[in-house]
Amino acid sequence: MDLVTVLLAIIVILFLANAVKNHKEGNYKNFPPGPKPLPIIGNALTMDMSKPYKTFMELSKTYGPVFSIQIGLTKSVVLCGFDIVKDALINHADVFSDRPQAPVTMKFLKNYGVITSNGENWKVMRRFTLSTLRDYGMGKRTIQDKTIEEAECLVQKFKSYGGKPFENLISINAAVANIIVAILLSRRYEYEDPTILKLIDLINENVRLLGSPWVRLYDSFPTLMDLLPGPHKTVFGNLRNFYKFIRATFKKQKEELDVNDQRNLIDAFLAKQQEGKPESTEYYHNENLTVLIGNLFVAGMETTSTTLRWGLLLMIKYPEVQKKVQSEIEQVIGSAQPQMEHRKLMPYTDAVIHEIQRFGDIVPHNVPHATSEDITFRGYFIPKATLVFPLLHSILRDKAYFAKPDEFYPEHFLDTKGNLKKNEAFVPFSIGKRSCAGETLAKMELFIFFTTLLKNFTFHSTPGAKLDLTPALGAANSPKPFEICAISRR
Question: Can you give the pTM of this predicted structure?
Answer without folding.
Answer: 0.92
